[in-house]
Amino acid sequence: MALKEGLIGRKVGMTQLFGEDGKQIPVTVIQAGPCPVVEVREKGRHGYNALQIGFEPQTKNVSKPRAGHFKKAGLPAMRVLRELRLEKVDGYQVGQTLTVDLFAPGELVDVSGVSKGKGFQGGVKRYGWSGGGASHGSMFHRAPGSIGASSDPSRVWPGHHLPGRMGADRRTVLNLAVVRVLAEQNLLVIRGAVPGSIGGLVVVRKSVKLTKAQQRARKGE
Asked: 108-114 and 170-182 as β-strands: parallel, antiparallel, unpaired?
């Protein structure tokens, strides 16, 4: 699997556009970059190829080790640091700035973020349990019910769905199309929804997997 470059950004929100055919297109607006290259990791020295990029200047509460790391790169301190592994890092150098010009309209991207946290939830909401009867004197509605036999196996099977914390997990949505690139505002307009709440951090990378249509085209169907 090829490893592709990308940008750090924040989810601005969702809106809608209309295509040339008049159809409504749901889109997510992401403020992506600019992201300076803080460090270039090479396989010969570090064991793998990667770019360490920063996002959003930080002026307060910068620790001494963090300040020294950016000082070595000759860059101001950044609030967010992420590392993107690549097949090759040739042509990249410390201090180089990556912007939304990295992407083009129509290109497919993968967007990673942390999903919205929903707190402690029951099985009906968390896993879609059907629940018990809602009327006619039913005493069983949304409770878990029996979760294992007493004699055999005398335990609960690992992985059994039960109430618990829901959301706040790292998720990646694959193969979303870039609708518009607004370079002057550092904005990406991407078709569909992406993980996280408004203002949440996301990482936008060039798509690494083929869509079903691309797979069929490669097979010559």
From this structure: antiparallel
Residue numbers of the chain with a pLDDT score lower than 70: 1-2, 221
Contact 189, 178 (CB under 8 A): yes
* The pair of three-digit structure tokens given for residue 158, joined into one six-digit string: 């690992």
Fold (topology level) of 35-98: Double Stranded RNA Binding Domain (3.30.160)
- Token pair belonging to 13: 């929100």
Helix runs in the chain, H state only:
43-46, 64-73, 123-127, 212-219
Residues 6+ apart with CB under 8 A from 65: none
Superfamily grouping for domain 1-33+99-127+162-221: Translation factors (2.40.30.10)
pLDDT of amino acid 221? 61
The structure's pTM equals 0.82
What letter does residue 102 receive in the DSSP assignment? G
Exposed/middle/buried for 126, CB within 10 Å: 0-12, 13-18, 19+?
middle
pLDDT for the residue numbered 108: 93
Which pLDDT does position 191 carry in this prediction?
A: 95
